[in-house]
Write a structure and sequence with these properties.
The mean pLDDT is about 90. With about 475 residues, the chain is α+β, with helices and mostly antiparallel strands. It is built from 15 helices and 16 strands. The longest helix is centred in the middle third of the chain and has 20 residues, at about 220-240. The strands form four sheets. Strands 2-6-7-10-1-11-12-13-14 form a nine-stranded mixed β-sheet. It has helices spanning about 55-65, 165-180, 220-240, 285-295, 300-310, 315-320, 325-335, 340-360, 365-380, 385-395, 400-405, 415-430, 430-440, 445-455, 460-475, and strands spanning about 5-15, 70, 75, 80, 90-95, 100-110, 115-125, 130-135, 140-145, 150-155, 195-205, 215, 250-255, 260-265, 275, 280-285. The protein is about 40% helix and about 20% strand. It is elongated, with a radius of gyration of 29 Å. A hairpin with a 4-residue loop joins β13 and β14 (about 260-265).
């Protein structure tokens, strides 16, 4: 009879902070750019260059620590983590081992068994490495140091999670908090949020941890879920066969749905840490913490309560709108411009979220242009179909909908004489629908409305056409 196992999971989550410049130099942190153009002697590891801490990195790290209920280390410092790899220009990484900036925090998540707190062991600041670009045709690898020196915080959890569902809930809670803070966009597909999964198994009812593995290269929630399920099954098979699990780092291939070993898992002593001699200690004052606390934003749970009280929106609407910080900004700006909260909510939950899903892009249009579109639709200047068509342009290019409707002759306020002629034509062309309507089948008017819309090339409000047709039929 096979044993019952419990999965034990801890995460190391790397988040790129969205400062304009790197952690120890003035180079740009902008995503993209030609290879090796966002570099200088400091971030490319030239001998004799000296790092200087970007104060904004410290502020953002502390703000994340406060939002995740951490203690802030008042006397902190940086250490050198020594390892040799082609994308690491100095052959060491500046990080924090002994005195991380934040410690002993926690994030509350919802599980199938109710609320649970996932403890945070520490949050430390460090610099990112460069990037290797592999050319499969000539079997050559190129190094791009644009990312080298981009500021990171690493959020190290305790091994408190027991399933992929709990891991995803924890990551979503972290992402939501950090996005609301404005500290990072947390885009997994661009690498600004990355998670390494430390996973082990133990027999249910036992306290001792099993041998853990670390799985890397996880750039989506879907990949994280599949990697956890795959590694759990792999370790169970090993244990059931009487074999041992090797402590190692594994790389996940989402296309093949398989992980393979990269290297044996290192311990801290393997990196030969020592205090960085070029950086002075960090002293965090009470005044600085108080100032950062004061500048913390309204978080999701607070917004949900306020939206319920102020706008009377349904719980579902509130939950959807507050799921993305940018949606709350558009919503609140739109309400300030006098738009109806429920109508704004419908556009954000419907067409906006649809296009976000289809394009993979964030909603970067202005609330002003969404409000203009809603008013054009309310006044029947444009019908629903045209409004959705125009909104796609608003979403993609943030165009002015009033100007766009005018330039493209999309107004549905057609000449009443022309519309009356088309309605007369529709009645004459659909004798069966007329007879059905007269016989009490009111839905038969739909065939005539469709005829009118086709003849008017969509530049007509279907509700108005419906009413005018019914009026004419009722006279017959």
């Amino acid at each position: 009879m096979s044993k019952e196992y419990e999965t034990v999971i801890g995460l190391e989550v790397h988040v790129e902070l969205n400062t304009k410049t790197k952690i120890f130099c003035g180079c740009s942190t902008a995503f993209g750019g030609a290879p090796n153009t966002h570099t200088c002697p400091v971030c490319s590891g030239m001998p004799g260059s000296l790092p200087v801490l970007n104060k904004e990195v410290l502020r953002k790290a502390i703000s994340v620590g406060l939002a995740t209920n951490c203690d802030i280390t008042r006397n902190s410092k940086f250490d050198r983590k020594n390892y040799f790899y082609p994308d690491n220009p100095q052959n060491y990484q500046i990080s924090q081992l002994y005195y991380p900036i934040c410690r002993n925090g926690g994030v509350e998540i919802e599980t199938k068994d109710g609320k649970k707190t996932v403890r945070i062991h520490e949050i430390h600041m460090e610099e990112d490495a460069g990037k290797l670009v592999h050319d499969p045709y000539n079997e050559t690898s190129y190094v791009d140091f644009n990312r080298s020196g981009v500021p990171l915080i690493e959020i190290v959890s305790e091994p408190d999670m027991r399933s992929a569902d709990e891991v995803i809930a924890y990551l979503e809670a972290l992402r939501e908090t950090i996005q609301y803070l404005g500290a990072s966009d947390c885009k997994l597909n661009e690498g600004s949020m990355r998670a390494d999964v430390n996973l082990s198994l133990r027999e249910k009812g036992t306290e001792e941890f099993g041998t853990r593995t670390e799985t890397k290269n996880l750039n989506s929630f879907r990949a994280i879920r599949r990697a956890i399920e795959n590694e759990t099954a792999r370790q169970i098979d090993l244990l059931e066969d009487g074999k041992t699990v090797t402590q190692e780092t594994r790389r996940w291939d989402d296309n093949k749905e398989y992980s393979y070993p990269m290297r044996s898992k290192e311990d801290a002593q393997d990196y030969r840490y020592f205090p960085d001699p070029d950086l002075v200690p960090i002293i965090v004052s009470d005044e600085m913490i108080a100032e950062i606390k004061k500048s913390q934003p309204e978080f999701r749970n607070e917004k949900k309560e306020r939206y319920k009280a102020e706008f009377g929106l349904p719980d579902y609407d509130i939950d959807q709108i507050t799921s993305e910080k940018r949606l709350t900004e558009i919503f609140e700006d739109g309400v300030l411009e006098g738009a109806d909260p429920k109508k704004l909510s419908n556009w954000l939950m419907g067409e906006t979220m649809r296009l976000m899903k289809e394009t993979g892009k964030d909603p970067n249009f202005s609330a002003d242009n969404l409000v203009k579109l809603i008013r054009l639709n309310e006044s029947k200047e444009i019908n629903n179909a045209v409004a959705k068509e125009v909104f796609e342009k608003v979403f993609a290019e943030d165009i002015d909908p009033e100007a766009y409707v005018k330039e493209n002759n999309l107004s549905t306020k057609a000449d009443e004489g022309l519309l009356a002629e088309v309605i007369k034509k529709a009645i004459e062309a659909n004798p069966k629908a007329v007879a059905d309507y007269k016989a009490g089948k009111k839905k038969a008017v739909g065939a005539m409305v469709g005829f009118v819309m086709k003849e008017m090339k969509g530049k007509c409000d279907p509700g108005t056409a419906n009413q005018m047709i019914c009026n004419e039929l009722d006279k017959m």
